[in-house]
Amino acid sequence: IFVTGIDTCRAQAGWEVNMVRNINPQNTSGTGWKTVSSTAKPIAVLIPAGIMTAALINKDKISKYKAIEIGTSIIVAAATTTMLKQIIKRERPGNVYTDIYPDKPDTDYAFPSGHVSVSFATAAALSIQYKKWYITVPAYLWGTGVAYSRMYLGQHYPTDVLMGAATGIGSAYFSHW
C-alpha cells in the first residue's frame, strides 16, 4: 500500500509522534531553544569563513584546505538534504497534528532536518580536521542541541533529526574522502 503526503505522517510510528508531543510545549515563544535552532545555518557558514579568513591572513595553506573541506561538507549536506526533502516529501509534525505546536508555520518538508544536517556536517568536519576534544565535544553538543531544538519547536520527528545527523556526518566523511 502506498501512502503519500499527510497520510504518510499519520502512518508515523506512534513513538515518534508521542516523543514530539512530550518534548513540544504549547507555547514555544521566548525559549532558548529557538535561539539554539537559529544558530545552525549562521555558525555553519561562519566557521569555514573564519578559518579561511585566518588562513588567508596568515598565508596558511593547510588551514585554507581545512576551510575548503569544512565548507564543502556543509554544501554537500545542504544539497543532499534538499534533494531528499523533495523526494520523500514528509510533512512536518506541526502541520499534521493539532496537538503539536510549531514555533512558526513552515511549508518546507521535514525529512531530513536541514538545520541538523548542516550542524552535524560542521561538527563532523571540525572533528575530522581538528582532532582535539575541546573542539569535537562542543561541536557535537551544539549539533545535538540543534537536533533537540527542532523537535522541541514542533518542526521535526526524531527520525528527521537522526537522518539529518547521518546526512551531515556522511557529508563530512564524503568530503574528506
Summarize it:
This protein has 177 residues and is an all-alpha fold. It is 72% helix and 0% strand.
What would you note in describing this structure?
With 177 residues, the protein is mainly alpha-helical. 72% of the residues lie in helices and 0% in strands. Helix 3 (32-38) crosses helix 8 and helix 7 (114-129) packs parallel to helix 9 (158-176). It is elongated. The chain starts with 5 loop residues before the first helix and ends with a helix. The model is unreliable at 1-11 (pLDDT under 50).
Strand pairing plus helix content: what structural class?
mainly alpha
In terms of DSSP E residues, the strand content is: under 5%
Q: What would you call the shape?
A: elongated
Mean pLDDT: 87
Describe the sheet with the most strands. none
Helical proportion?
A: over 70%
Radius of gyration (CA) equals: 17 Å
SS element count, helices: 9
Order of helices and strands: HHHHHHHHH
Low-confidence stretches: 1-11
Secondary structure tally: strands = 0
Q: Span from first to last CA?
A: 39 Å
Descriptive key words:
elongated, about 180 residues, disordered N terminus, 9 helices, mainly alpha
